[in-house]
Amino acid sequence: MDLVGACRAFVHVSERGSFTVGAAAAHMSQSVASRRVAALERRLGERLFERSSRRARLTPFGRELLPAARRLVLAAEELEHEAATAQRRPVRLAVPDTCPAPALARLAAAALDHGITLDLRTAAPAVRPHLVRSQQVRAALVAVPPDQARWRVPLGLAGVARPRARRLYLETLRPRRTDQGPPRRVWLQPEDDVPHIRDRVTRLRDAVGLRPAQLSVATSLTQAAAEVFSSADLLLCSPLQAREFTLHWRPLGEFESLERTFGLLAAEEGDAERLGTRLGDDLAHCLGAGAEAGTAQTAGTENV
């Protein structure tokens, strides 16, 4: 039996002295109100209304129970109000500052379709876990080791000049005596200054004989891209980022794969599961890990 619904019918009918008028006030039909009151009477073991009168008159038992029924209905209405308020309360989510604004807008719109209001905050990779732990945000997209990844973003090298080869090898940047000017560098953006990316590329740099300064970490993606635009340097980036900057992208030849790997960290485990399940594809799109990333990667090896 729907105890709250039955008590709602009981309260509205008693206040208006009529099953017809009370049912309308409770937003139910007269027949439904009658069935619910009858079910409540069976549950409680006594009649609540005198059935002989044309009006709905409370029995002494009904008068005794009416205050408690009112409290139950008010408590249920308060619970429903609090639930609606909680659903409208924004969920603060920290995301990489590499996520493009249009993709973030589509993410926020998709969240609204699921009844979730997102308050998006961009932050550096080292800052995002701290924001969750300090409860400044409820969840964050964070860099994780490859074996813990939920989303994967392919990485390669991009530059102003269009390479002839389908892959770019780091060893081709090794300085030669005949070279004029400073050696070419590879720029890492802050999002890739994490051990499972930085350390792999650093070991490769040393293995192929590059100078330490040929691998540099920029203070921002904007700075890294500016260095590439003004030189023959290369940017370690995703295919979608290369498209945004109109750079020519190729996979890094010495690695079978090099990827940014992300997971979702939340203060409450339920938040991570809810956001990941409902918004997984849209989060992938923001990161460059969705279906478009694969399209961009194919295009990048030929046309970007």
Automatic annotation (TrEMBL):
<dbReference type="InterPro" id="IPR036388">
    <property type="entry name" value="WH-like_DNA-bd_sf"/>
</dbReference>
<dbReference type="Pfam" id="PF00126">
    <property type="entry name" value="HTH_1"/>
</dbReference>
<protein>
    <submittedName>
        <fullName>LysR family transcriptional regulator</fullName>
    </submittedName>
</protein>
<comment type="similarity">
    <text>Belongs to the LysR transcriptional regulatory family.</text>
</comment>
<keyword id="KW-0805">Transcription regulation</keyword>
<dbReference type="InterPro" id="IPR036390">
    <property type="entry name" value="WH_DNA-bd_sf"/>
</dbReference>
<feature type="domain" description="HTH lysR-type">
    <location>
        <begin position="1"/>
        <end position="59"/>
    </location>
</feature>
<dbReference type="InterPro" id="IPR000847">
    <property type="entry name" value="LysR_HTH_N"/>
</dbReference>
<keyword id="KW-0804">Transcription</keyword>
